[in-house]
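Example 3.
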Amino acid sequence: MNISNSTTAPNAGEYAGDEVSAIVLDPGYSTTRAGFAGEDVPKSVCPSFYGHIDSDPPHYLFGENAIHDPLGNLQIKNPWGSDGIVEDWDTATKVWEYAITSRLTGNRPGDPTKNGLNDGNANGNGEAMDVDMEGLENLENMEKPLEDSPLLMTEPGWNSVKAREKYIEIAMEEWGTPAFYVQKTGVLAAFASGKASGIVIDVGASHTSVTPVLDGMVLKKGVQKSPLAGNFVSNQIRMIFKQAQPEIPLTPHYLVKTKTPVDAGAPAQATYKTYDIPPLDSFRYNEEERVLTEFKESVVEVWPGPGRFTNGTNEEIAKSLPGRPFEMPDGWNQLFGSERYRVSEGLFDAGAALQDADNPRPKDEHTIPRLVQAAVQQVDADQRPLLLQNIVVTGGSTLLYKFNDRLNYEINTLYPSTRNKLIAPGPLVERKYAAWIGGSILASLGSFHQLWISRKEYEEHGTNIVEKRCR
Amino acid sequence: MASGRDVRDMLGLPVGGETPKAAIQKRAKPAAPGKKIQGVAREVAALYGERPPPVAVYEEKKSYRAKRQSTGPAKKWVPQPFTNQARSDGLILKHWRRKPTSTPAATNGEDIAMEDTEISDSYIEDSSEFLKYNVAPDMPTFTEEEYDAYLRSDDWSREETDYLFQMIENYSYRWPVVWDRYDYQPSLKSHLPTSQEFPNDIEQALATLPFAPPKSRSVEDIKARFYEISAKLMKLRIPEVQMDADQYATYEILTKFDPVLERNRKTLASALMNRNMDEVKEEEFLLAELQRINMAANRLDAEREELRARLEAPIPNQQVSAGLASFTSSQALAALFSQLFQADRSKKRASGGGGVGPGRLSLSATDLMATPTSAQHAQLSAANRRQSLAQQAVQTPIRHLSPLAELRYNVSTHDRLTSGITFGADKLLKMRQAKSNVQTQKIGQALAQLGIADIISIPTAKVGDAFEALVTKVGKLLDVRKVREKEEGECRVLEAMKARRMSEIQSDENGGERRSTKREVSDSQDRDSADIGDDDDDDDADADADADGDADVDAEGEEEDEDAEGEEIESQMQSTRQASEVEVMSTRATSAGHKRSASVLSQVSTKSSKRPRK
């Protein structure tokens, strides 16, 4: 028996793989995932948020460790726009580059200007630096981070043509990749579950999207997105905290020096840190968001059905269920009862969402069942049953407890006459990074190599080749 | 050893001394390594004692992974550049490959490595492994002339057609995807002449466009256009007559595509899919209900069947519906006769050719001239005889007398005789007994009603027959009476239900005038002669009619008894309602000999002959 291990080559025809050490980059609103194709998890998962200190020149901070450091005047920003398309291309490039270089290709020696970490003590201002960098690049091509790795990027289903062209421009011009391809997250998430056709429900941080995929191709008319996703749930939690009597204090970790245990509902007994030059509000917001993430992970639950949370006696039933305790970083703690259902109900039932002046009532057509309905409606009638048999659930926010039960109930209510099947991979990594994993599979296939857009082709046709090739 | 040989002997195996020896030798082998057991295993083996365990315990050899064979220094892998033949731009990617081992044996490893990297740098692998996956869809092609001559369409511009073909090729005939991405924007370039004429006035140029601004095409539109072109091109390339079967089948499919039909089908499909929960549930419920009704119907049929069997009405589907009616045609009669004749002949042969004499009751050609009734009689008795024929095919010949002679000499034939002597009176008395006391009483009452004495003074065979016939009929009469009571009960329930419903409807009618008029109209349609004056009366009459109808069906057709002469059973049923008629009937029954039609009598007599046998 030929026992295969890491030192033997796989048998011919064992799998259609042919690895060319391609890098898969899956940028998202919350995190940016990067890793080598053919691996099963992304090696590098970095927050998409970056720190920015408004000095002269501006100082940027990237990576998990840097952005949680409470430096003076630090603000936390995100290059993604509210419409789910990258807005700030310059920093987005830097964030992505950080994700690639920090763990995959490594920081090349003698390239301090490139990774942005040392920008503070480099050149005079941004423009000058840019000029400088270009000069450097022209002089020495070796400085580009992706010199010998083809790059597969993912994009949301609603990405604009301009954004796609920007992707290839960044990859080719700034990173110097020999070959490039861009694929939609929906398709890749379906691939990660071993499906070529299906409906992909992706509930991420900033957006929920529903993407019908047929034979590995996105049906563009059916792509639906809505802002009711993880951040929406966070906002709902904030509102719950605000509306509670007395108001529940939300103190992030970095402000707490020491804490002493207190009874449930009692005010916190903690000493707080003070900073001479405190970080800005956006930093605090981001840190609060971390606490809320913890809250979502440990307390929030989706009403599993049958019926909506606000229907009939469901609320009463929820009240009678045992609550879940949560302790804030400053020691304040309480048992959360039916509120924990309430905050996630808005994803499915716009009417049940909490609202105030800053958070208007979400639109009905933005709830997940309505998105699915709209997406299915845009698909040819013959394909609908097929798609409904393969409903792939992905995205970090689908990890909310009982989310799948509820989704299953809602879809079966919408389409009682078809066989609907949810495909939600159990392992956390597969759920969170489905698009990356799909990209990893795709880019490591031998038959994929004919699809790459090579540098030569790019130089020949320009950026609009991405529209022709990446359909 | 001896036992082993015995077993072998019993099994019929060759008694050879060689096979056991071999077996012993084989058995001995595994024992040998057992002695070499070491360590704890040896102690365990000692605990077994003299008798080894029933399951042989073999110690697996220690199965660590095989030690890696050191075959020299570690193999080198190199990022091997390669080109993909499916690409036209010569993109060079690198994948990891074993370094070719063609290096000569040398002393200095570093030097070799240097050499090899040099070699691999210059060498570019030409990978065709995945070339087979690079497939392009097969598209029909056409020239300008062909397009102008055959493929023009009012609805589709040349440019859009080209666009369509491009889309189909791009998406490899995936129609839903083609439709999804189909976004044709007519460019102004194709209308160059128009825009040249009015170079300054774009609006006017747009207005004079030969084609309407882009319209949304459905999947069916797209398919229809493409199939149409494909079919035309196919016909152009290969004339219809020269197509082989496959090609013609494809051609047929292409020409027969009907977008309207397809669209309707899809509308239906989506309607089916978009049913709401209630409709789906209703469908499930209806299906379950249908199944339940079917089962109930089967049960009801079985019950009816049982009832018919009890009444021994002619089974409707046997011969033609009525027993007698089937023999009205001469053809049927002839067939029947030949059948009987055949049966008789076989019997004759079996009985050794005896009884050729004139007195014997047997069929001859002259019997064909007999009346239908006699034929019926003959058939039934023959059928009866045929039954017994099977049992007593070989028997001593019986001398047959003519009926007249039989009567004269008081000779009776019996299929089977009970041993001992019985009195005719006893026989008659026995007939009065039924299984249950109540039934016996009832029979007694009925007979008393008919004025028949408890003890019949001279129970001759003939009287016995008559009495038997009578008792059978009385039995049936009682059965029928029971059924009738049951049906009447049902009718009452139904009437009550109907009355209640009617009263409900009437209350409705009082509420709304329109509905009542509607009902009246429908009523007048139902029954022409009905008086529409009073609703209440009307409804009652309706209910009655319904109840009657029910009774009719359930009680085996009362209508029939009014005109059917020969159907004695039905007539009896009617007679149950009027005591006077019962009496008439009884006179008929007692004086059955001459007046009644022979068929019924014979039917009864066959039964009487069957009964003792049972």
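Residues 80-87+119-186+214-274 of chain B form a domain with the Arc Repressor Mutant, subunit A fold (CATH 1.10.10.60). The interface with chain A takes residues 65, 75, 79, 84, 86-87, 89-98, 127, 129-130, 133-134, 170-171, 174-177, 179-181, 219, 266-267, 269-270, 272-277, 279-281 of chain B (CB under 8 Å).
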